[in-house]
Write a structure and sequence with these properties.
The chain is α/β, with parallel strands linked by helices. Helix content is 59%, strand content 6%. The protein contains 24 helices and eight strands. An eight-stranded parallel beta sheet has the order 1-8-7-6-2-3-5-4. Strand 6, helix 10 and strand 7 form a beta-alpha-beta unit. The longest helix has 28 residues.
């Protein structure tokens, strides 16, 4: 079928179009097929077809399965075709396989499900296991960095529709962003898909790998009605960009072909090749794109397209050096948080003994690094934590200062040094350290809390209150922040608010003695003697523990 050459564009032009349209708040979604996963190490459907046929025809083994007997394959295929279990005669499939080997091209995608059924005949569950093993160790290729940004920035292009079972999109969002996606991995979940949801949506029309994925002719004959309803609504909102999808299934492709005019916004169908009509995908796809007034975009693979889009949309943000710094910081922040939580557990009586042996091993490793003169900022921070816990405050300050000298972007070291400066009456230094910790990590609830204490001691109630508010906003379960804010409200004679904060602290930690004592005072001032006495009694019982 002839397709207008004027409706074939380059990857660069598509990138520019996305940027310009985004500035006008036009929304795009992404339809991803198996071709979008190839550069992440997951074979495409066409390469799997070739592997499976080579094994079925006795040419080579396939991931532990020895070469099969070609004669038996033909007999089983003939029986399955007679029983209408596969859709094509095997002579036709075999001829397509031989032609593909001769030309070095792919086997047409229409044979995928038949070849899959033959490869895993008599043990269909092994097919799921096979696919799972292919996917479980694969990581998102670099193009997924741009996709993750597109899905999360400005909440415009926040939808992926995919026939894939893999978790590459979800993994990329975890790796490159702080957004958790809504993964719709089963048709029973489609009612949760809403364009206005404030998070990325990953719609898996063939289900996720853990939900008995649809991977047979019967299960992909058509989309489930739930999906048809949800996708009809989505494609009225978003303009689809199709990447790595060959339309070989009869579910999503049949749905799209049913009413091309319904895609009022058209479609941008990416294919691998040059801006040349002779390189375009199969006839049915050309007809669909033409009928819905869409465009083809010639690309050189998923990663190449996404880097082009990323360069156009985000500039330096996707550069390797900038990305490495971002990933390194995220990883270091997680490591520091882990160590901070470990150190806090090490101070609690109920876990201190259990961790003692491991802490001793950690200290031995640290001493070995000291001999090798290779102590890290984290090592010095842990030394500061230990010295502080043992009351050696100046030694702890020195250790945190060394940590900061090695890593000037270490918010925990500034925060903890600030606590020590405050204890020693050096308020200016403490405030400088808290400010620096918050500057480095605007989501550091502990630093806001500690600065709130300092401001309260300095009599700057308004700033103290703002810091306690921020600490609670960042960590709604921050018991001590509620108690301290209650004290501040009490000083400001806002007793109802103080009562609410003390009550919330007690709800979060029923063993918080100070909160009971503080609430008892409020109840007494309100004339509620019974409640005040109950809180005093609770505080006294906790003091005896």
């Amino acid at each position: 079928m002839e397709f207008p050459k004027s409706r074939i564009i380059s990857a660069k032009r598509l990138s520019q179009l996305i940027k310009e349209s985004s500035e006008s708040s036009e929304r795009f979604c992404f339809i991803l097929g198996s071709g979008a996963s190839v550069e992440s190490g997951i074979p495409s459907g066409s390469s799997l077809e070739m592997q499976w046929m080579d094994c079925l025809m006795g040419k080579m083994e396939d991931r532990g399965m020895p070469p099969m007997d070609a004669g038996e394959t033909r007999e089983i295929a003939a029986a399955l075709y007679a029983e209408k279990e596969i859709g094509h005669e095997f002579q036709e499939i075999e001829a397509a396989w031989l032609q593909a080997k001769k030309e070095g091209g792919p086997i047409p995608s229409e044979y995928y499900f038949d070849i899959y059924k033959l490869r895993f005949h008599a043990n269909p569950r092994q097919g799921y296991s096979y696919l799972e093993k292919i996917m479980e160790r694969c990581n998102p290729s670099l193009g997924y960095h741009t996709l993750a940004k597109l899905l999360t920035e400005n909440n415009l292009h926040n939808l992926v529709i995919t026939t894939n079972f893999d978790s590459l999109v979800e993994d990329a969002l975890f790796l490159y962003t702080d957004k958790k996606p809504l993964v719709v991995g089963h048709e029973s979940l489609v009612d949760y898909m809403e364009a206005n949801i404030q998070r990325p949506i990953v719609a898996k029309v063939h289900r996720g790998l853990m939900y008995a994925p649809l991977n047979s002719p019967e299960s992909t004959e058509g989309l489930k009605p739930e999906w048809e309803r949800a996708l009809s609504h989505a494609l009225n909102t978003y303009t689809p960009i199709v990447i790595g999808y060959a339309g070989g299934d009869h579910s999503l492709m049949s749905f799209l072909e049913k009413d091309p005019a319904a895609l009022r916004k058209g479609v941008y169908w990416c294919y691998r090749g040059k801006c040349d009509p002779s390189c375009l995908p199969e006839k049915n796809i050309r007809k669909f794109v033409k009928d819905c007034g869409g465009y083809f975009a010639a690309i050189d693979g998923f990663d190449a397209l996404m880097v082009e889009i990323g360069k156009t949309m985000y500039g330096d943000a996707i550069r390797p050096g900038v990305t490495a710094d971002m990933l390194r910081k995220k990883n270091e922040d997680r490591i520091r948080e882990y160590h901070e939580q470990w150190n806090n557990l090490s101070e609690k009586p109920e876990t201190k003994d259990a961790l003692q042996e491991m802490n001793a091993a950690e200290q031995q490793e640290e001493e070995q690094r000291e001999k090798e003169e290779s102590l890290t900022a984290l090592d010095y921070a842990r030394r500061g934590f230990r010295a502080s816990g043992e009351g050696r405050k100046q030694e702890a300050i020195d250790a945190y200062s060394k940590a900061i000298g090695l890593d000037p972007t270490y918010p925990l070291a500034y925060n903890n040094r600030g606590i020590l400066y405050k204890d020693l009456g050096k308020r200016k230094k403490a405030l400088d350290d808290y400010n620096r910790a918050i500057e480095l990590d605007p989501n550091y609830a502990h630093a806001y809390y500690n600065r709130g204490i300092l401001y309260s001691d300095m009599g700057v109630s308004k700033k103290a209150l703002a810091d306690y508010d921020k600490a609670i906003e960042l960590d709604p379960d921050y018991v001590y922040a509620y108690n301290n804010r209650g004290v501040l409200y009490e000083d400001l004679e806002e007793l109802e608010k103080a009562l609410e904060d003390y009550t919330r602290a007690i709800q979060l930690d029923p063993k918080h003695k100070r909160a009971y004592q503080n609430r008892a005072k409020i109840y007494a001032s309100m004339g509620q003697k019974a409640l005040a006495e109950a809180d005093r009694k609770a505080a006294a019982e906790l003091a005896e523990l």
